[in-house]
Design brief:
Blueprint lengths: L2 H15 L5 E5 L26 H14 L3 E5 L9 H9 L3 E6 L6 H9 L4 E5 L5 H8 L4 H15 L7 E7 L7 H10 L3 E6 L21 H10 L7 H5 L1 H7 L12 E4 L5 E2 L17 H11 L11 H9 L5 H8 L6
Parallel strand pairs: 1-2, 1-7, 2-3, 3-4, 4-5, 5-6
Antiparallel strand pairs: 7-8
Keywords: 4Fe-4S, Iron, Iron-sulfur, Metal-binding, S-adenosyl-L-methionine
Organism: Hyalangium minutum
Pfam families: Radical_SAM (PF04055), SPASM (PF13186)
């Protein structure tokens, strides 16, 4: 690891200890070539001229750096539809820890090399089923599974730090609740990590017309058993152990920290507490300083008390927010960084 990366990681850790905001989800576009039933972004894509520009993201990165060092989750839509994706990653990579999530369709060797050279810290490729036909159908992309695994292999091939920088991301839902071990075996065969996030069905526009639902069986014991069995299953144990709590009685979960130590910025520049509450806009980064927007949100716009989801971004907040838990720090420094 380079000296610059060590310094960046040290700043990030110091921010956690100081309980500063540390996580932001950024949708760089709502446009997407997939038509996933659990996502409402692709039918609501904006024209490219309406989206934040690379210059906007450079300005945003500098404003964030004044607050602290952030884990930046670069999402869509499908981020690779942006022709300036490398410049966006470069903007965030200068000060922060950029993660990228993609369905893999547009990934090429040239783009992979450029993204890592621009400072990409980690990438997740979406694969939800161990059977190609089922994943292709869910994503509305014939041949999507093959493209996704090809993308996984390209990222793994060119990642400066090997498999610790690449993982498969699975949306856990009722339809694939029995697929996880088979998927873990596949990601192990490709020598990359594996993460999952529980599907959200209660957020803004979520679950209204989707046939997808949350799992209908107890899963936490199985998830924790798989965590022990598969070292490349890079998840916080606190998160996996609380899946059943969410499914059975979500009111028993700790208060959500969205809007305080994490927040969301959409493709148009609107700031909200989280991706599930993107209709609760507290300002736009094109119109005023980010610090002013965050202060307004802290005063009256957090998601505290909300129990609508148990997605992985909330899992990060529960494990690392408010200074973090001992188990969360242990998982961050070991499992989440394993080679």
């Amino acid at each position: 690891m380079s000296l610059a990366e060590l310094r960046r990681d040290a700043r990030f850790a110091a921010g956690l200890v100081a309980r500063r905001p540390f996580q932001v989800l950024v949708q760089v576009t709502n446009r997407c070539n997939a038509t996933c039933s659990f996502c409402d972004f692709w039918p609501n894509g904006a024209h490219p001229r309406e989206e934040l520009t690379a210059d906007d993201f450079r300005k945003l990165s500098a404003e964030l750096a004044k607050i602290g060092t952030f884990l930046i989750s670069i999402e869509g839509g499908e981020p690779f539809v942006r022709q300036d994706l490398v410049e966006i990653v470069r903007a965030f990579g200068e000060h922060h820890v950029p993660l990228l999530y993609t369905n893999g369709w547009f990934v090429t060797e040239e783009k992979v090399k450029a993204l890592f050279a621009a400072g990409l810290a980690q990438v997740g490729v979406s694969i939800d089923y161990s059977e190609a036909a089922r994943h292709d159908a869910k994503r509305g992309l014939k041949g999507g599974t093959e493209r996704a695994w090809q993308a996984v292999d390209l990222f793994r091939k060119h990642a400066p730090h090997g498999n610790r920088q690449v993982h498969v991301m699975t949306v856990l839902m009722r339809d694939n609740q029995n697929d996880l071990e088979a998927l873990l075996k596949q990601s192990a065969a490709h020598d990359v990590g594996h993460c999952l996030t529980l599907i959200s069905t209660q957020g803004y526009r979520r679950g209204k017309d989707s046939p997808d639902g949350v799992p209908d069986v107890s899963l936490s014991p199985q998830l924790l058993s798989l965590w022990k069995q598969y070292p490349h299953f890079r998840m916080f144990r606190d998160y996996l152990g609380s899946v059943d709590t969410f499914l059975a009685d979500r009111s028993q979960l700790p208060a959500c920290q969205a809007g305080t130590q994490s927040f969301n910025i959409d493709h148009l520049g609107n700031v909200s507490p989280c991706i599930e509450k993107i209709d609760r806009r507290f300002g736009n980064v094109r119109d005023e300083p980010l610090a002013a927007i965050l202060q307004r949100m802290r005063e009256g716009g957090t998601a505290r008390g909300c129990q609508d989801c148990w997605t992985l971004c909330r899992g990060f907040n529960q494990s690392l927010g408010q200074g973090g838990t001992l188990k969360g720090w242990m998982d961050l420094s070991t499992r989440m960084r394993s080679a």
